[in-house]
Prior knowledge:
single chain, 326 residues, alpha+beta, nine-stranded mixed sheet, four-stranded parallel sheet, globular
Amino acid sequence: GNVVILGGGLQGCASAYYLKQRGFQDVTIVERTSVAAAASGKGGGFLARGWGSGPTRPLHEVSFDLHAELAKTLNLKTYRKIKTLSVTGELGLRGWPPADKPAKAPFSPDAPAWLDKEDTGAKLMDPDTAQVVPKELCEALFAASGAKLVEGRASGLEMDGDACTGVNVDGTTVPCDAVVCAMGAWSVLLEDWIGAETGLSVPLEGVYSSSIVFEGSPEVAAEPCALFCAEDSNSCHLEVYPRVDGSVYLCGIGGSDHVRGARLREGGDLQDASLMKANPDRVAAAVASFQGMAPFARGQTPKIEQACMRPCAPDAMPVLGLVPGT
Length: 326
């Protein structure tokens, strides 16, 4: 049968890829903006095998191993194993430009040379983590899936009893035998489309956050490691991910907004991924924090300032499975 997938992010493109592995030849992705337009194109791509807990721990472990397999199968250029450090800075005592301060942090032998030796303390957190640029992974999954791409706004489902027979896209119907909803936080639209008939509730909200990317340096390229930083005087708790091309991705810059309800629907300020913009105040705070700990970044401005929105349920668990009543 033919399958329509709503959403061209990692979940949608991975669904298309694995459907092809199982023999499905007629798969269509409907995407309003572009493949990897939201968190799947702008996330940090940090991977840790043993950081899960509770019922999702096995998923973390399987996912970590699967990323390594996919990197080989899809010939991903941005996947690699890296170590992760826990970093403490003293930005309350010295920022940038530097000023005299009463104390110095002990410098760890684990820390890379591109960190300021006077203003940071670092220790090994996990020697066996990894990274991939999510946009590359998402686009590679889509290309390998062979799925057709329909660019447009999905506005409803055509139902025949308990079966979905089509998706309304910009005034036309894309026929299907089954539909997969992988729209991230915008999956709440299913409530509007079929909630009355099925009693479906989609308890998701969007966590809307900013991130930035700096040009790298030879020092960063020579000693790549992920950094998880303690909260600092700029209200940042930076996560720092040097990438294969030498650039440095930063998130954890504070100011996340929790988006729900009408804001995600037609006419809302975040009705689609193209409307997401970085928070300039939090960008400035992250720049100050990172320049205080990384001398190579001083005098630089970020080459990318961006925002994305990741879906989150109240219990932080995945929302998966067959829609009840269908």
